Amino acid sequence: MFQDFSEKSDASRSGERLAALRARLAEAGLAGFIVPRADEHQSEYVPASAERLAWLTGFTGSAGTAIALLDEAALFVDGRYTVQAASQVDEAAFTPVAIHDTLPSDWLAERAGEGARIGYDPWLMTRGQRRSFEKKLARTGAELVELKENPLDALWRERPKPPTGAVSLYPEALAGRSAEEKIAELQAGLKEKGVEAAVIADPASISWLFNIRGKDVPHAPLVLAFALAPAEGKPQLFIDGRKLSNEVRSALAEIAEIGEPGALAPALSSLPMGTKVLYDPQGAAEALALAIEAGGGEVVEGADPVLLPKARKNKAEIAGARAAQQRDGVAVLRFLSWLGGQAPGSVTEIDAARRLEKLRAQTAKAHGSELVDIAFDSISSTGPNGAINHYRVTQGSNRRLEEGELYLIDSGGQYLDGTTDITRTLLVGEAPAERLTLFRDRYTRVLKGHIAIATARFPKGTSGAQLDALARAALWAAGLDFDHGTGHGVGAFLSVHEGPQRIAKTGHTPLEPGMIVSNEPGYYRPGDFGIRLENLVIVREAAEVPGGDRPMLSFETVTLAPFERRLIDPLLLTPTEIAWLDCYHTRVRASLSYYPGYSDEERAFLEDACRPLVG
Description:
Layout: H1 14-27, E1 32-36, H2 52-57, E2 65-69, E3 73-77, H3 82-88, E4 95-98, H4 104-111, E5 117-120, H5 127-138, E6 143-146, H6 151-155, E7 168-169, H7 172-175, H8 179-193, E8 197-200, H9 203-209, E9 212-213, E10 226-230, E11 236-238, H10 246-253, E12 257-259, H11 264-269, E13 276-279, H12 286-294, E14 298-301, H13 307-311, H14 315-340, H15 349-366, E15 371-374, E16 379-382, E17 406-411, E18 413-415, E19 418-419, E20 422-427, H16 433-454, E21 457-459, H17 464-476, E22 487-489, E23 498-503, E24 516-519, E25 522-525, E26 529-532, E27 535-541, E28 552-557, H18 575-592, H19 600-609
Parallel strand pairs: 1-5, 3-4, 5-6, 8-13, 11-12, 13-14
Antiparallel strand pairs: 1-2, 2-3, 7-9, 8-10, 10-11, 15-18, 16-17, 17-20, 18-19, 21-28, 22-23, 24-27, 25-26, 27-28
């Protein structure tokens, strides 16, 4: 099993750990310390050795920030994690705060008096984040102080060692382009920008640029490393040499100079005076910018130059994505068939997650492929657990799928040719009429939002922020909404969450052909149930409209799995929406029926689940 169902949250010692941290802060003359959920790469996916926030607070979500003052401490989380934070944190030590109500910088500025010195680790904060805090603190006369050593590291005696996962070469047939081609394109872009080098910290960018994959973090085949790419000549790759076999080292040595991570800061500081270095102030550690400036280099701020080329999938990557989605769809179809045959109360959330992972592995093997990993810990949630956006089932939280409840399963696979991510919401057994009416109303409104995104046509240059409202309109009409983005970017056998593209209120990067994004509106009733419907879509050129005068884009839905018919109210759908749904199900049936390994029950389920909605 790739998924571990043990309880990873432990706030039982948060109080004593916070007290120990405060003692160290007092000794150093500091009034507080900022603890983001981050590593040196500013990645969402961090190794166990970087889980400082979880160690201190007990909160295990993928995003959050704690601030510890000498007399008060708080944990800041977004809408995905408000319920989770409240359940995991010892509120005698840390007060959970919703970030949409109060920003960490505002909270700190209100409490840090004149002359207060607030410590931070420059390896765990970007320059953009540092500026945000400094701007607010300047109003009160407090200051931010960079620390050479993180005080938590001295306290965390059982801290795991940094990962040394083996690096593998990613086949050019799947990558679609050689690393040499990618590096050449990067260098041409640097010359256009008038810079002499770029420092790259994002593990996904490193993995994509050099056509390598790794095993450093759970569920994402990323290589934790840094790169310094000059506008001319070989780039430098800073990576723990223990990760490299002789074969991999030899191949990488042909395209890069290889050094240990500890050599990065000295290399930045020793650049010729005045060297212009491109640095991402929103995605790279402040320590990197400080190292450049320490040697007299000039920091030129701009986005990671690998992000957009990586996001624009080439033909090979798109072909791989389609193949992976089809293979994954067979596994999900078999899972839905199996679950529909189980008696209510006989299956737990963990049972279901295990079954789906097993079916993914079996189906991949039957195709001559391999399930390399799951894309993330499956969100296998029923009843009130479904209302927790990023719920992670554990032995302690595990619930049975009971009669009349909704079951939400958000899951994905990592295959060599692509990364998948799909969510379906199902009805367990039968529900009383009143509850069924409620379920169908909410489910159908979410489905309407999903269809609105799937069928959207939009001019080139449109961003995800401009499309986000389409997914919410049917919910807004009923006074409802959801507290997460409608869609995130997805990588090509890389991160299941990939930027810069996204469909969200904060998604301001224009969508371009080849980008893969999720389409996943939802609805969550705290303490009761949750609904989310997710497919992956690829941005593509749209057919010309007679009389139109602007080039348009649209989405190709590539996820293949039926929706829950019993939760759809046809009366809430327009004829156009019903036509889309029937067309989609026809494509699902045609695309998945080829598989020779179905049981009679699975094949019958496929036919029934994909029949026309009405009639």
